[in-house]
Amino acid sequence: MSNHHPDGDVVDQIADPANPQIARDIRQHRPKIVDFIQATFDALFVDEPGNFDLRLRFLCAAKVAALTEEAGLARFYLDALECIEPLDTDAKEDALEKAVFEHTTRVTSAPASCDQAALDALNAVGMTEYEIVTLSQLIGYVSFQARLILTVRALAGVERAAATAKSGSRNFVRHSGFTAEPIEWASWLTPVDLATATPDQLAVLDESGPTARTSPYYLTLVHNPAVLRQRSGTYNAIMYAPGGLSRADRELGALVVSTLNGCPYCASVHAQRLNQLTKESDLVTRVFADPVSGGANERERELMRYARRLTLESGEFGVHDVTRLRSLGMSDGEILDYSHAVAIFAWANRLMQTLGAPILPNRRDGSEAGAGHA
């Protein structure tokens, strides 16, 4: 196994290539998050034996970045590929590459459309469960990474180059199946059996959270413990770190994104947490009814708008979006905290929606329990 890593932090380099120190200074509001994000990159982009080699990982990452309209990040991954293997633009895709690229496009652009058959198609071309989980983590990570770069660039006051396409923007589709009641989730892969788990897998589960050993979700992700360790560290630092933006506002970002993306399980978890933090359920009701503009006051509406822009309209996101939150009196540190919470659910939803399905209250067998378009 070998690693091919850049000099310095990737997000800092891409956000403002002319002066990465500006990005570094902005992000030092949360140094632990900075370290976890780079450590996740280091864990994902390793050359391992098998079907999902480093070449294919860089190609998939470039595709995710391009679909999210983060051109600088897409170029970074293609340049990284050139360092290990010249890009052959005339090469024909084999069955494995075709299946992986189709899955990457689907998960990036329409995560709620994924189903068991999507994973079966990967399995049919030889992808192992370890490789499928790694691919899923990579797609989610780059979806997160691209949105973080957009945020940091906007906070630095750097206007992005004009987009040449609208691929980074998705039409809002109203989803159904949302509830603030607890629901379950069933994996489409075989979760790791605790009886045969390695010591490292068990350690990572314990690091991830108090219920991870009994969670089908974490038991699925721990097929690749190295990536899960860094992903859990990133998530926990974003959602639970003290100081800065209130926990309730972070949970609001998580809930809005999960509702926009059509992820009932994530929406259920974070609706419950938001209700606990606010001591009332009206805000959750408003988000479920209208995640685009359902706020009761200017601040709620602007926070919801910002989450929508970064989630569905990343191709048009820029300095003006940050300016609107500053006009509410939010500090740049609070805006970064909120952006972290919004962006991490570009990652979390894409794992939850594409590796399994929620078991909705009226179904207890897990079948056909996808996000459900209204």
Task: Provide an overview of this structure.
This protein is mostly helical. The protein is 60% helix and 3% strand. The chain is built from 17 helices and 4 strands. The strands form 2 sheets. The protein has a two-stranded antiparallel sheet with strand order 1-2. The chain has a two-stranded antiparallel ribbon with strand order 3-4. Helix 8 runs antiparallel to helix 17, helix 12 (247-261) crosses helix 15 and helix 12 (247-261) packs across helix 17. The longest helix is centred in the middle third of the chain and has 27 residues, at 129-155. The protein starts with a strand and ends in a 15-residue tail after the last strand. Keywords: Oxidoreductase, Peroxidase. One of its GO terms (molecular function) is peroxiredoxin activity. Residues 225-307 form the Carboxymuconolactone decarboxylase-like domain.
Topology of this structure?
Layout: E1 2-3, H1 10-15, H2 20-27, H3 31-44, E2 46-47, H4 54-67, H5 71-84, H6 95-109, H7 116-124, H8 129-155, E3 184-187, H9 199-208, H10 216-221, H11 225-240, H12 247-261, H13 264-278, H14 282-289, H15 298-312, H16 319-326, H17 332-354, E4 356-359
Antiparallel strand pairs: 1-2, 3-4
Return the domain count: 2
Q: Tell me the span between the first and last alpha carbons.
A: 46 Å
Q: What's the gyration radius in Å?
A: 19 Å
Largest sheet strand order: 1-2
- The average pLDDT value, as a whole number, equals 92
- H and E string: EHHHEHHHHHEHHHHHHHHHE
The total beta strand count reads: 4
The CATH superfamily of the largest domain appears as AhpD-like
Strand content bin:
under 5%
Low confidence ranges? 364-374
CATH architecture of the largest domain: Up-down Bundle
Helicity, as a percent range? 55-70%
- Kindly name the structural category: mainly alpha
By CATH reckoning, the class of the largest domain would read Mainly Alpha
Largest sheet: 2 strands, antiparallel
Shape descriptor reads: globular
- Here the CATH topology of the largest domain equals AhpD-like
Please count the helical segments: 17
